[in-house]
Amino acid sequence: MILNFLMFFFNFIGLIMVRSHYLMVLISLELIFIILFNLIYLYLNFFNFEYYFGLVYLILGVCESCLGLSLLVYLVRKMNLSYVNSFFLC
């Protein structure tokens, strides 16, 4: 359990420090998602609850990763950029 919190903390620090490439941001977010899913699973297993909430969380994470990868493919094909620092959204 302590290892999960340490991994979450270091991935969050890595997300903040290495924000230059879009794919690296997606990988860091997916690692944070997997660690949070593991913590939810451990919590539900400890109290003998049902695992439906974990399943819904996993489905939402898969949708989020598909959306992120499709946005990455769109940016690389249409605008020829994949760096987060060059985005002008506002």
UniProtKB/TrEMBL annotation:
It comes from the Eukaryota. Keywords: Membrane, Mitochondrion, Transmembrane, Transmembrane helix. The chain crosses the membrane at residues 21-43, 55-76. This is NADH dehydrogenase subunit 4L. It comes from Perkinsiella saccharicida. The lineage of its organism: Eukaryota, Metazoa, Ecdysozoa, Arthropoda, Hexapoda.
